[in-house]
Design goal:
279 residues, alpha+beta, six-stranded mixed beta sheet, 39% strand
């Protein structure tokens, strides 16, 4: 795929959001697209869950985009294969004037549909619980009113079953255990502690370093340079994922990017780690 056209497509999303162009925003997605925002809060599917002519993705727009003023600040874009990772800060002014800012990692998967590029999936990795608390603390009474009003609107637009699924992201998933595991992963890599490293992974786990270059997790130490050092920052968990910014240093070169760790709901161990950086 043409990288220029891919990034052009993705950039149209915040442009349409800023203009409150509902149909323009929906048209960026493929006929079977999904949006998971935040990750762990369930899927919003285009063309599915029809209710009064509006599908899941349309209702997502009506709930979280349409009533608000939203501005994106992009910190980095990474393109690998048919995926784009964006590290962004999303500034939102709610309908009553309360203001919130979410720092998150977005991962888009792009497909060709007909003769056009479309977004097949968008997954937003951010900490819903933490940001809900910040909304109320930083806006005082206005933040509390905004939270109550938003919950009422969710019941009306999304319905109770979907709201219950959405709110589950606050207590279901890997949460703080994921952050602890990623910090342990980083320490093990830097110490070349293969025993501790191995204990963090589920059977059959894989590492993509970079994304698209998959190897068994057990081969990581032999598959990379022995002089690798790793730093991580901006860790956040949602659902069964923990994501962060990383920096690596080796004699062969340095890399800066975003990584996504997926955990098993059964064993709570890492099943995949995908590192994204630009060539």
């Amino acid at each position: 795929m043409d990288k220029g056209k891919m990034i052009e497509l993705v950039e149209k999303s915040p442009e349409s959001v800023a203009k409150h162009d509902r149909e323009g925003w929906l048209s960026l997605f493929s006929s079977s697209a999904i949006v998971e925002d935040p990750v762990g809060a369930g899927m919003n599917r285009k063309g599915k869950d029809l209710r009064k002519g509006e599908d899941g993705l349309g209702r997502f727009y009506d709930m979280f985009i349409g009533p608000n003023k939203i501005k994106f600040t992009v910190h980095q874009d990474i393109i690998l294969g048919n995926e784009i990772v964006r590290e962004v800060s999303i500034h939102t002014t709610l309908s009553n004037g309360a203001v919130t800012e979410v720092h998150c990692y977005l991962i888009y998967r792009i497909v060709e549909e007909g003769s056009e590029l479309k977004i097949e999936s968008l997954r937003a990795h951010w900490d819903f619980g933490r940001n809900s608390i910040i909304l109320m603390r930083s806006n005082g009474f206005k933040g509390i009113v905004a939270s109550i009003a938003q919950f009422g609107a969710m019941i009306k637009i999304l319905r109770l079953k979907r709201v219950t699924e959405y709110m589950g992201v606050m207590y279901k998933g890997i949460l703080k255990k994921g952050i602890k595991a990623v910090n342990s992963f980083t320490a093990a890599v830097n110490a070349k502690d293969k025993a501790t490293f191995t204990q963090l992974f589920d059977a059959g786990a894989t590492i993509e370093f970079p994304a698209g270059n998959k190897m068994p997790a057990g081969d990581f130490f032999t598959g990379i340079s022995n002089d690798l050092s790793l730093e991580v920052s901006g860790l956040r968990s949602g659902g069964w994922y923990t994501s962060c910014v990383f920096d690596t240093k080796t004699d062969g070169g340095d890399h800066h990017g975003v990584t996504f760790f997926q955990f098993s709901p059964k064993t709570k161990k890492i099943v995949s780690a995908r590192f994204f950086w630009n060539d």
